[in-house]
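Action item from last meeting closed. Structure (314 res):
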């Protein structure tokens, strides 16, 4: 069931960064509100526009994100094999893969292994200040260097252990941002070129379909990792430039203390799916099968056979 709190989070995620009433950008630490305006529409408002809300559903404190939230009308695609498509329809749930289960071992990475000393050096002043502050709180006013150094080393070791652990706490669903259908994505993500299905949606539809208030949606940043990410960065929003062709927008949910390799999140299929595309090389019988399956699950959606393999005229 999509509650008002979930709807509020959908609006907050989709319009993140700006007041929908005055179009003003939010400032760090500013209170912002999601509520219903006089006409009943859900609205994200700043402190100055708060009085224009008839009711307030949820209050947030604004902090900038590392990622960019794509515009509402951005087209998103998910290319998949037929069984995964049927599983989505049957369960009404979107599958999110745990970050450390992806083939790309750099998922959640801060840099290359040979950069560890650089990362440690950049962290050391920050960790040292933190350690000295804690020792003073514990009543040790003039700690000796050996004690400080030992605690700093322990903190740095713990930092890397925590980073490795965090890879098991993030669950991700990957989407391809593109105005048009992509031949490359068909080839990369469909194991059988005769039985592939692509869901076409939009940023707005995706956000408004997710039935939980725990998610984030944003565009991946691509890095060469010539320099490792700094200590404040969240690696889950970064990938290597070798993957730029994916133009990825991802749904991310953090769940601590689970051993699951993936998680299923309820979605409103009518809201999520705008169109359905059949892989270019699929035979006609497969197209008919997909159409019948879609109808069987009560969805009224356009099913199009990709025309990327249509014969040209010279």
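Sequence:
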């Amino acid at each position: 069931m999509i509650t008002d709190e979930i709807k509020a989070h959908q609006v907050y995620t989709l319009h993140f960064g700006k007041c929908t009433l005055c179009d003003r950008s939010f400032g760090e630490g500013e209170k912002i509100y999601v509520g219903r305006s006089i006409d009943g529409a859900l609205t994200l408002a700043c402190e100055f526009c708060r009085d224009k809300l008839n009711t307030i559903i949820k209050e947030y404190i604004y902090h900038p994100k590392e990622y960019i939230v794509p515009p509402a009308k951005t087209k998103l695609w998910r290319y998949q094999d037929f069984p995964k498509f049927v599983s989505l329809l049957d369960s009404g749930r979107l599958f999110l893969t745990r970050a450390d289960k992806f083939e790309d071992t750099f998922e959640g990475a801060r840099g290359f292994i040979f950069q560890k000393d650089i990362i440690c050096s950049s962290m050391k002043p920050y960790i040292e200040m933190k350690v000295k502050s804690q020792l003073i709180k514990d009543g040790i006013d003039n700690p000796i260097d050996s004690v400080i150094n030992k605690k700093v080393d322990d903190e740095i070791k713990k930092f890397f252990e925590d980073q490795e652990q965090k890879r098991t706490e993030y669950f991700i669903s990957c989407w391809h941002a593109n105005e048009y259908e992509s031949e490359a994505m068909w080839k990369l993500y469909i194991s059988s070129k005769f039985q592939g299905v692509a869901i076409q949606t939009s940023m707005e539809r995706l956000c408004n379909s997710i039935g939980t208030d725990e998610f984030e949606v944003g565009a991946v940043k691509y890095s060469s990792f010539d320099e490792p990410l700094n200590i404040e960065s969240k690696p889950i929003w970064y990938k290597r430039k070798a993957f730029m062709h994916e133009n990825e927008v991802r749904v991310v949910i953090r769940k601590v203390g689970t051993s699951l390799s993936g998680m299923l999140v309820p979605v409103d299929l009518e809201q999520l799916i705008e169109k359905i595309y059949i892989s270019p090389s699929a035979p006609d019988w497969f197209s008919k099968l997909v159409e019948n399956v879609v109808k069987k699950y009560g969805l009224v959606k356009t099913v199009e056979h990709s025309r990327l393999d249509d014969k040209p005229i010279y």
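Note appended to the action item: The longest strand covers residues 53-61.
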